[in-house]
Amino acid sequence: KRLAVFASGTGSNYDAIVEAIQKETLDAEVVLLVSDKPAAKVVEKAKANQTPVFVFEPKKYAGKEAFEADIVAELKKAQAELVILAGYMRLIGSTLLEAYEGRIFNIHPSLLPSFPGLDAIGQAFDAGVKLTGVTIHYVDAGMDTGKIVAQEAVRIEDGMTKESLQQAIQEVEHRLYPDTIQQFIESGE
Ligand code: GRF
């Protein structure tokens, strides 16, 4: 399948997807990297990999509908089939949802519906829960509310810091996201 990865940050999940493709454990191709942050690390990485990049500045548009119309045009041009959100820090609007219905996935660093929104790892850590994890879900108009596709638990051991918890969560993310995308592809949906 032809994937478009959306990211605003470091892009470690983008890296994991690219690696899985190289190792042939993920039967896909990243045909476009979409970012709302021209200075993001992930943009640099994508350019170095020769992944085509569409970077936009939300401020330069009248609103979400306008920049999503441009995104959809780029997705169509690249013939993207699935949209993979990987640290894209924005809610998806109706323009994109309608164009890619049932084809947009997100990864979130908690066991949803617990700890949606920003800093889910910090939220779980501060709440003192013993178990958190990673969720991959379909994207709908809400914040981290779409139907759940896959989840994996991560135990918060005594003595863990926020940093070591983050590391444990990222390890799970980097395996679970490519695997879940592959399973979706194999399901033929
Ligand atoms: C990940 O923790 C993901 O769960 C969340 O944003 C983070 C992105 O990290 N949605 P990276 O840019 O892939 O390293």
TrEMBL record:
Enzyme class, UniProt record, top EC level: transferase
Full protein name: Phosphoribosylglycinamide formyltransferase
One family name in Pfam for this protein: Formyl_trans_N
Family matches, as InterPro entries: Formyl_transf_N (IPR002376), Formyl_transf_N_sf (IPR036477), GART (IPR004607), GART_AS (IPR001555)
Top-level taxonomic group: Bacteria
Stated role: Catalyzes the transfer of a formyl group from 10-formyltetrahydrofolate to 5-phospho-ribosyl-glycinamide (GAR), producing 5-phospho-ribosyl-N-formylglycinamide (FGAR) and tetrahydrofolate.
Catalytic activity entry: N(1)-(5-phospho-beta-D-ribosyl)glycinamide + (6R)-10-formyltetrahydrofolate = N(2)-formyl-N(1)-(5-phospho-beta-D-ribosyl)glycinamide + (6S)-5,6,7,8-tetrahydrofolate + H(+)
Similarity comment: family membership: Belongs to the GART family.
Involved pathway(s): Purine metabolism; IMP biosynthesis via de novo pathway; N(2)-formyl-N(1)-(5-phospho-D-ribosyl)glycinamide from N(1)-(5-phospho-D-ribosyl)glycinamide (10-formyl THF route): step 1/1
GO BP annotation list: 'de novo' IMP biosynthetic process
Keyword terms of this UniProt record: Purine biosynthesis, Transferase
Species in which this protein is naturally found: Saliterribacillus persicus
Domain Formyl transferase N-terminal: 1-181
Site (Raises pKa of active site His) residue list: D144
Record keyword Transferase present: yes
Binding site for N(1)-(5-phospho-beta-D-ribosyl)glycinamide: G11, S12, N13
Active-site feature positions: H108
SUPFAM superfamilies given in the database record: Formyltransferase
Any GO CC annotation of this UniProt entry: cytosol
HAMAP family the record matches: PurN
MF-aspect GO terms: phosphoribosylglycinamide formyltransferase activity
